[in-house]
Design a protein that fits this description.
The structure is a single chain. The protein folds into 2 domains: about 220 residues, no CATH class; about 35 residues, no CATH class. It is elongated and about 75 Å long. It contains 11 helices and no strands. The protein is mainly α and about 270 residues long. α4 runs antiparallel to α5, α5 packs across α7 and α7 runs antiparallel to α8. The longest helix is centred in the middle third of the chain and has 26 residues.
């Protein structure tokens, strides 16, 4: 079962061109949705405005720029270095790499029905990784569930991405495990996948494109001294002290306020 292309069974009912056309439409929807979000939420204006503010800052040399790009790719993107919580980082990495495998293997299997069995295995692996990381996050790691005691079944608009991704992967695995073919499970699988890729303007899907750019821009501002006009992790520089809006914080010790990290926030 794990070595069989689940989309090959569709050829008895659907022409391969139908599924291939569907994949192309989903790619177009992601591109259009991301561009819409860039314009609607002003992401591009934000980055250009930040670049203009930094034009008088210390110039960053070519070698340093390459080093920053490598650090961003390795630490912030590939290793999800933004997460201090180990459990959340592992769940995020499972979901991220699982989703990449799942989508890539889907495209290969749809456009090449005779692809090597390894692609079918990668499709299953990717889907299982998405489910493992996604359900772990949803039921045990989410802040409003783990720290605030809210029900894991409480739904918000911001949950569209994670829920549609989990629905797509879960229904896809159930559909393939039942033998594939056109039926109710296949219809639900297509519906969930369509919501996932067509819902980009209303979900957090596009953040996977924005976050690397934001991480790179943040490292650049730290290197050129502008630091997004925020205080750096030091208070021995008078210029950094002035950046604190509260006079109390200008001469405060660096470890002030870190007592909250001594225990898990479970006081609901």
């Amino acid at each position: 079962m794990f070595s069989i292309n689940p989309f090959a069974a569709l050829s008895a009912t659907l022409s391969p061109a139908v599924m291939q056309g569907y994949v192309i439409v989903m790619i177009v929807l992601v591109a259009v949705g991301t561009l819409y979000e860039v314009v609607h939420k002003g992401s591009a204006r934000y980055f250009f405005r930040t670049m203009r503010k930094a034009k008088d800052a210390r110039p960053v040399g070519g070698g340093e720029l390459v080093s920053i790009a490598v650090q961003t790719a390795v630490v912030d993107v590939l290793a999800s270095g933004e997460f201090c919580n180990a459990k959340r980082r592992i769940a995020h990495l499972l979901g991220m790499y699982g989703f990449v495998l799942y989508v890539l293997a889907t495209a290969v299997l749809v456009f090449n029905p005779t692809a090597s069995a390894i692609w079918a295995q990668l499709w299953w692996l990717g889907g299982l990784m998405v489910c493992a990381g996604g359900y772990w996050f949803w039921f045990f790691i989410r802040v409003d569930v783990a720290a605030e005691g809210s029900s894991p079944f409480r739904l918000m608009k911001a949950d569209l991405f994670i829920l549609s991704m989990l629905a797509s992967a879960t229904l896809g695995l159930l559909w393939a495990g039942s033998g594939g073919g056109v039926g109710v499970l296949f219809g639900l699988y297509i519906l969930a996948t369509t919501v996932l890729f067509a819902g980009v303007p209303w979900s957090k899907f596009a953040h996977m494109f924005f976050k690397p750019a934001a991480a790179f821009e943040k490292r650049i501002t730290r290197a050129n001294g502008t630091a997004e006009n925020l205080p750096l992790q030091t208070r021995d520089d008078p210029e950094q002290q002035k950046r604190h809006s509260m006079e109390l914080l200008q001469d405060a010790p660096m470890n002030m306020g870190l007592g909250i990290k001594r225990e898990a926030p479970r006081h609901y």
